[in-house]
Amino acid sequence: LSSSSTYTVPPSVLLLGPDNAGKTALLTLFERGAKPSATHTSQVSQSIELNASTDSVTKASFRNHDDATGTHTKFLLVDTPGHGKLRNVAMGKLARTEKTKAVVFLVDAAALGEQETLAPTAAYLYDVLLFLQKKATSKGKDKASIPVLIAANKMDLFTALPATMVKSHLETELTRIRASRSKGLLDSGVGIDDVGSEEQDGWLGEYGSEKFTFQQMGEFDIDVEVLAGSVLTEEPGADKWWWWIAQRI
Ligand code: GTP
Ligand code: MG
Questions:
Q1: Mutation test of ligand 1: which of 16, 24, 29 has the most ligand atoms closer than 8 Å to its C-beta?
Q2: Nearest CA to 74 among 53, 51, 98, 97?
Q3: ipTM higher than threshold 0.85
Q4: Residues lying with their CB under 5 A of ligand 2, a single-atom ion
Q5: Which domains does the chain have, with CATH numbers?
Q6: How far is ligand 2, taken at its centre, from the CA of residue 112, in Å?
Q7: Does the chain have fewer CB atoms within 10 Å around its N or its C terminus?
């Protein structure tokens, strides 16, 4: 081949989220375009190449199109293990993947009403958002504001919280985590205005605000959206998530 042809890395979309959220099931659904396959707890990351289009005819279809028309954008969907002991694998993907265009953070909306699921889910999300906030405020060449979709999965189950409650539960828990992680700072009696930029860098969202909201990530140009769906059933299905991704690659 011509030596002038340059190999281009396609953009990546990272699938993050705790174990059992449905990440691998979603990957197989997008890959096959129909029924997802049975999954096991993931221990390694895997990526597949997909093509998405924002053209109106195929926008709701997540079949793995071949790009014959030139209207599709090729991208890599990267699945990561959610288990807490493998968090370094997932966070490593976040830190090292080139051309990450978006993060899809999958949560199990049917289990999020339980504190034992909410707490570790929010703790993981906190780490992801703080990482992205630091990336957005960095001065290096890899400075970027990466949008986040919180995909509230398993809406087919009767215990599933609606998207608005997934959002508010997570915001409440993130507020609590932020308060406890910055406790030393707040207790030191230093006024907010006297705090150095280093401390501010460790604070998620609007500095000094009482309650954390996803909207505060807008200060860093990071768009966070919560959309409900289901991998295993056709209704509500995964179309909205696919469309969100298609618009961001
Ligand atoms: P790790 O690999 O451990 O990080 O988990 P994961 O996020 O990859 O979860 P996985 O895709 O393996 O799915 C976990 C379980 O949830 C599987 O039994 C799936 O069949 C099930 N599941 C995924 N999506 C849905 C859904 O929309 N509804 C229901 N009811 N179950 C789902
Ligand atoms: Mg998995």
A1: 24
A2: 51
A3: yes
A4: 23-24, 42
A5: 12-186+197-246 (3.40.50.300)
A6: 18
A7: N
